[in-house]
């Protein structure tokens, strides 16, 4: 399975993501500069965290208007996996690939620490290796992770089981304790916490590994029976 | 040449933590008569004259300048001297 880690000007978790995929999971990965439009050879696209374009205008807004988004949308329409973490989630929201928007954290502080999360939906291609309702520890690192959506959208997210991760102790004011959501088709996941920063016990937690393992296993089951 | 002034504010009912912090800070300075503060953005565009300027500006706001999920925008167009 081959992963593309999209690098925007201002991305800063791109190498962590690359390290997780390449060295911990042992899969193929490329760091792909955002103006490279050829994404056809990749099975999954990862939008890393950071401050793309300095968070100018709104977090993720400028990146969401770049040409590469058209290719990412086409990739998603084929049913291939897209994961946006932190700023990557903000970009997916701004691009309309996921519903809702991000407001500044309720306490206005940039927060950087481990948070316990519940796996609210373990029946997605990103979470099938977790137990139902499993509580995991992942680091958060954001100033604008206060998920907002209107009531109608929140109801639809709940009804369709699109809420994938919830905060146990909502740190930022997110509606419905939302830490991560998936699209209706189940192949585009956005989340504020950082699974790629939790892949080695030595560094505090390896609870993020199962997310990538789920993705790899589901891809193998779907596309590469003999691989 | 036209000058387009776009004012972008949080939608009614959307939490504005920045406005809340400014209000608290004003109150600490003795301006406790301020009951509510709303913060937003002001963007000025200088554009060549063309037809359908309203449609163009709305397109720009909907596609990039404002986020309709959480923000409302208003704009004004005025004639300015070419610089």
UniProtKB/TrEMBL annotation, chain A:
Gene designation per UniProt: purQ
GO molecular function terms attached to this record: ATP binding; glutaminase activity; phosphoribosylformylglycinamidine synthase activity
GO cellular component: cytoplasm
Pfam entry (one): GATase_5
Protein name: Phosphoribosylformylglycinamidine synthase subunit PurQ
Organism: Lentibacillus persicus
Cellular localisation: Cytoplasm
Keywords associated with the record: ATP-binding, Cytoplasm, Glutamine amidotransferase, Hydrolase, Ligase, Nucleotide-binding, Purine biosynthesis
NCBIfam families reported for this sequence: FGAM_synth_I, PRK03619.1
Gene3D superfamilies for this protein: 3.40.50.880
Subunit architecture: Part of the FGAM synthase complex composed of 1 PurL, 1 PurQ and 2 PurS subunits.
Reaction equation(s) it catalyzes: N(2)-formyl-N(1)-(5-phospho-beta-D-ribosyl)glycinamide + L-glutamine + ATP + H2O = 2-formamido-N(1)-(5-O-phospho-beta-D-ribosyl)acetamidine + L-glutamate + ADP + phosphate + H(+); L-glutamine + H2O = L-glutamate + NH4(+)
Active site, UniProt feature: 86 (nucleophile), 194, 196
HAMAP family attached to this UniProt entry: PurQ (MF_00421)
GO BP term (any one): 'de novo' IMP biosynthetic process
Pathway(s) where this gene product acts: Purine metabolism; IMP biosynthesis via de novo pathway; 5-amino-1-(5-phospho-D-ribosyl)imidazole from N(2)-formyl-N(1)-(5-phospho-D-ribosyl)glycinamide: step 1/2
Matching InterPro entries: Class_I_gatase-like (IPR029062), PRibForGlyAmidine_synth_PurQ (IPR010075)
Enzyme Commission (EC) number: 6.3.5.3, 3.5.1.2
Function: Part of the phosphoribosylformylglycinamidine synthase complex involved in the purines biosynthetic pathway. Catalyzes the ATP-dependent conversion of formylglycinamide ribonucleotide (FGAR) and glutamine to yield formylglycinamidine ribonucleotide (FGAM) and glutamate. The FGAM synthase complex is composed of three subunits. PurQ produces an ammonia molecule by converting glutamine to glutamate. PurL transfers the ammonia molecule to FGAR to form FGAM in an ATP-dependent manner.
TrEMBL record, chain B:
UniProt-annotated location(s): Cytoplasm
GO aspect biological process, one term: 'de novo' IMP biosynthetic process
Enzyme Commission code: 6.3.5.3
InterPro entries referenced in this protein's UniProt entry, alphabetically: PurS, PurS-like_sf
Catalysed reactions listed for this entry: N(2)-formyl-N(1)-(5-phospho-beta-D-ribosyl)glycinamide + L-glutamine + ATP + H2O = 2-formamido-N(1)-(5-O-phospho-beta-D-ribosyl)acetamidine + L-glutamate + ADP + phosphate + H(+)
Pathway field: Purine metabolism; IMP biosynthesis via de novo pathway; 5-amino-1-(5-phospho-D-ribosyl)imidazole from N(2)-formyl-N(1)-(5-phospho-D-ribosyl)glycinamide: step 1/2
Enzyme class: ligase
Entry's Gene Ontology cellular component terms: cytoplasm
The entry's keywords: ATP-binding, Cytoplasm, Ligase, Nucleotide-binding, Purine biosynthesis
Listed Gene3D superfamilies: Phosphoribosylformylglycinamidine synthase subunit PurS
Keyword Cytoplasm recorded: yes
Pfam families noted in UniProt: PurS
GO terms assigned for molecular function: ATP binding; phosphoribosylformylglycinamidine synthase activity
HAMAP family per UniProt: PurS
Family: Belongs to the PurS family.
Subunit-level organization: Part of the FGAM synthase complex composed of 1 PurL, 1 PurQ and 2 PurS subunits.
Described purpose of this protein according to its UniProt entry: Part of the phosphoribosylformylglycinamidine synthase complex involved in the purines biosynthetic pathway. Catalyzes the ATP-dependent conversion of formylglycinamide ribonucleotide (FGAR) and glutamine to yield formylglycinamidine ribonucleotide (FGAM) and glutamate. The FGAM synthase complex is composed of three subunits. PurQ produces an ammonia molecule by converting glutamine to glutamate. PurL transfers the ammonia molecule to FGAR to form FGAM in an ATP-dependent manner.
Designated name of the protein: Phosphoribosylformylglycinamidine synthase subunit PurS
């Amino acid at each position: 399975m081959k992963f593309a880690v999209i690098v925007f000007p201002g991305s800063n978790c791109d190498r962590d993501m690359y390290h997780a995929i390449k060295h911990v999971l042992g899969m193929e990965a490329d760091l792909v500069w955002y103006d490279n439009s050829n994404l056809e050879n990749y099975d999954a696209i990862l939008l890393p965290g950071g401050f793309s374009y300095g968070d100018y205008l709104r977090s993720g807004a400028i990146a969401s208007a770049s040409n590469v988004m058209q290719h990412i949308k086409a990739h998603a329409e084929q049913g291939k996996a897209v994961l946006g973490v932190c700023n990557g989630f903000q970009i997916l929201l701004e691009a309309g690939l996921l519903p809702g928007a991000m407001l500044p954290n309720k306490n206005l502080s940039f927060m950087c620490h481990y948070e316990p999360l519940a796996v609210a939906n373990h029946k997605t291609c990103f979470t099938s290796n977790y137990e139902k309702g499993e509580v995991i520890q992942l680091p958060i690192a954001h100033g604008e992770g206060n998920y907002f959506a209107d009531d109608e959208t929140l109801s639809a997210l709940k009804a369709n089981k699109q809420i994938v991760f919830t905060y146990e102790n909502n740190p930022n004011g997110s509606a419905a304790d939302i830490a991560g959501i998936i699209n209706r088709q189940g192949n585009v996941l956005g989340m504020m916490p950082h699974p790629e920063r939790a892949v080695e016990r030595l560094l505090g937690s390896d609870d993020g590994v199962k997310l990538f393992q789920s993705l790899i296993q589901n891809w193998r089951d779907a596309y590469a029976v003999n691989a | 040449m036209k000058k387009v002034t776009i004012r972008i504010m949080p939608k009614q009912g959307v939490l504005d933590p920045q406005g809340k912090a400014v209000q608290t800070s004003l109150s600490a300075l003795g301006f406790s008569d301020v009951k509510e503060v709303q913060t937003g953005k002001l963007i000025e565009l200088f554009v060549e004259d063309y037809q359908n300027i309203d449609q163009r500006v709305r397109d720009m706001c909907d596609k990039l300048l404002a986020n309709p999920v959480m923000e409302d925008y208003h704009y004004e167009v005025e004639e300015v001297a070419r610089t």
